[in-house]
Amino acid sequence: MFRSRRVRKDEAWEGVVTGKSRKMSDGSNLYRYLEVAFTGGGSKKIRVRRSLWDSLSTGDQIVKRPGSDPVKK
Questions:
Q1: Which of 35, 51, 52, 56 would be a feasible disulfide site paired with 19, CB 3.0-4.6 Å?
Q2: Count of helix runs (H) and strand runs (E) in the chain
Q3: Number of domains forming the structure of the chain
């Protein structure tokens, strides 16, 4: 079963960036991903915008509130 890596607008979480990657999975578009370890446990690879990806480094904190995009904390 396919599991979406997009961030949903109604999600809320906090975590720490544990890794960054880029990938051309469809052969024409470059997608940027962050591996995030959540504060409450668990981790997930999420797709983010270039501006956020460029501003973050491994170890930075990130927060996602319902109705908004993830931001650097």
A1: 35
A2: 1, 5
A3: 1
| Cβ–Cβ under 8 Å, residues 7 and 31 | no
Write down the pTM of the prediction. Answer: 0.83
The domain in which residue 56 lies consists of 13-64
- Whether 33 maps to a domain, the answer reads yes
Give 21-65 pLDDT, tens digit per residue. 999 877 888 999 999 999 999 999 999 999 999 999 999 999 999
Instruction: Decide if 4 is inside a domain.
Output: no
Whole-angstrom Cα distance, residue 30 to residue 16? 23
pLDDT number for residue 3:
56
30 falls within a domain: yes
Q: Which two tokens stand for residue 19?
A: 């890794």
